[in-house]
Amino acid sequence: MISGRTLAQGANCESKMSEDFFKAASSCYLSKEDYDLLGLSDGKNVLLKNEFGKTVLSPRVDDGLQRGIVFIPMGPWANILIGPDTGGCGTPQFKGVEIDIEATNSPIPDIRELFGDIQRAEA
User: Fold this and answer.
1) Which DSSP category does 89 fall into?
2) CB atoms near residue 45 (< 10 Å)
3) Bridge partners of 90?
4) How far apart, in whole angstroms, are the C-alpha atoms of residue 5 and residue 110?
5) How far from chain centre, in Å, is Cα 21?
């Protein structure tokens, strides 16, 4: 997994509770081959998980991505999967994050649900 800025995410980052930010940051992008291998179609979501957390996102095809790469716009959904290690530089690794991905019928959590899940897990 890699994460980075997108135009839509950046244009809406000042209003993180808005529907526009939700749409921009709660999607992920993968190759057409990976999309097909996962058996995805319109309306189907993906569950992404690793040792740091898990979240559900809306998948989109990006013909520019290689097989095996998932791109997630920077934001709370990507941050759930980013580990705390900064390698001494103060910034976590936003590139090359290992994740598991599978198709799911689960809905995408909104920001309140996303952080509510974290608080419940820590309790």
Assistant:
1) T
2) 20
3) none
4) 19
5) 13
Q: Are strands 45-50 and 100-104 parallel, antiparallel or unpaired?
A: antiparallel
Extract the tokens encoding 107: 């809905």
* Domain total in the chain: 1
Q: What CATH number is associated with residue 13?
A: 2.40.40.20
Using the structure block, give the residue that is written with the tokens 């992920």.
Answer: 28
68 CB-side CA count, 13 A: 2
Residue 104's domain spans which residues? 2-122
- What pLDDT does 14 receive? 55
Q: What gap in Å lies between CA 102 and CA 71, rounded to an integer? A: 15
Q: Which pair of structure tokens corresponds to residue 23?
A: 């749409």
Are 47 and 102 in contact by the 8 Å Cβ rule? The answer is yes
pLDDT in tens, the chain (123 residues): 888 776 555 555 555 556 777 787 899 999 999 999 999 988 899 999 999 889 999 999 999 999 999 999 988 889 889 876 656 665 667 677 889 999 999 999 988 888 776 555 555
Contact 114, 65 (CB under 8 A): no
